[in-house]
Amino acid sequence: METTAFRLPGVLAEIEEVAGREAAISVATSYGGRKLKFPTRDSLEEKSKRSKQNWLVKTVGHRNALAICREFFPFGGTVDIPSARNVLRRQYVYENATKLSQAELSSCLDISERAVRRIKSQLRDEGLLE
Predict the structure, then answer these.
(1) Most buried residue, 21, 58, 65, 90, by CB count within 10 Å?
(2) What whole-number distance in Å separates Cα of residue 70 and Cα of residue 48?
């Protein structure tokens, strides 16, 4: 299901390219809305005890963290991690629209039933739901 309707924002899309959607979603759900310092590639290649304590390694694993830093942050850097809340909600509604009632979707996502109706309407307008 590769569609722009569920494309992750900003640096999360870049993380998804290198480490996969699951890793990008883990970063988003754990740190979305925060400014974080990415480790240098060299600090991760050392595989020291300190590198194992890094937030990125703890979140996506050493292999994925190293791939992300090699590709985008070889010298480290501080980045605002965007919230992917809206994208993930839209994706959840899309995937479960026929399985769950509006009330169940609302409860699972901790949003109002009106918000669920709005998301469904947007997805219909985009031709993703009937």
Answers:
(1) 65
(2) 17
